[in-house]
Write a structure and sequence with these properties.
By secondary structure, the chain is of the alpha/beta class. Helices cover 34% and strands 25% of the residues. The chain contains eight helices and ten strands. The strands form two sheets. A six-stranded mixed beta sheet has the order 6-7-8-3-9-10. Strands 2-1-4-5 form a four-stranded antiparallel beta sheet, covered by helices on one side.
């Protein structure tokens, strides 16, 4: 009989709280957030502006440190690591796509995509970058600088860059936020196609319910806390024990 091996979650968040000092008072941005994302799953995080979803994403990716609680990313407890350790983990196993592209203006599209692998001293960065740019439809734009590219093209470069290190998990923060509908749809289709092809875990922050519906699970953040599902909230309001 074949023994099935259970894969550990790609991301485990327990009791996550983030407090910022604001003048003479404290500002609690996140309070007691819980989240588990299975390896290979697609997880959406939704909520209104200012709800704390981008802060949550940054903590999950090790870009910031929580005030309390735990984040276990790819089996590593981030709160036990220093910044160098978290940076090494991100460089080796994590990809990012941001709303504002974050391309280096003095580098070509090809050079922008190759940068993460070059920084690690990886082999074949140019060849991998070329292959990824072809996948996102930019075979004829590789030698162009960001200023010479449209917003949609810049985000496609950023998407190719996110996959250059063959990440185990990809964090995407409003990846279509600065794009029109047509370009946004193209980016999302490419994102999900690359994600599916490579078996990458996806954690996606979005304000778009239709985009969240394409994910396996949805976590809603409201005022820094996990909001109850609508059915649960109605039941609570009616005094039904859940």
């Amino acid at each position: 009989m074949q023994t099935l091996v259970a894969h550990p979650p790609a991301l485990e968040v327990t009791g996550l709280t983030k407090v910022y000092r604001s003048g003479e008072s404290d500002l609690t941005v996140l309070k007691g957030v819980e989240l588990t994302v299975a390896a290979g799953a697609k997880q959406a995080i939704i909520g209104p502006s200012g709800s704390g979803k981008t802060t949550l994403l940054g903590l999950c990716a090790g870009l910031d440190v929580a005030t309390s609680g735990s984040v276990k990313l790819l089996g590593e407890a981030l709160e036990t690591m220093n910044e160098d350790g978290r940076a090494r983990l991100r460089g080796a196993s994590v990809g990012f796509v941001f709303q504002n592209f974050q391309l280096i203006p003095t580098l070509t599209a090809l050079e922008n995509v190759a940068v993460p692998l070059d920084l690690r001293g990886g082999q074949g960065s140019r060849e991998k970058a070329i292959a990824l740019l072809r996948k996102v439809g930019l075979a004829e734009r590789m030698d162009h600088y960001p200023v010479q590219l449209s917003g949609g093209e810049q985000q496609r470069v950023a998407l190719a860059r996110a996959f250059i290190n063959d990440p185990q998990i990809l964090f995407a923060d409003e990846p279509t936020g600065n794009l029109d509908g047509a370009n946004g749809d193209t980016i999302i289709d490419l994102l999900f196609a690359l994600n599916e092809e490579r078996g990458t875990t996806l954690v996606l922050v979005t304000h778009d319910p239709s985009l969240a519906d394409r994910c396996d699970a949805v976590l809603r953040i409201q005022d820094g806390e996990v909001a109850k599902p609508i059915a649960d909230a109605v039941a609570v309001a009616e005094g039904i024990s859940l």
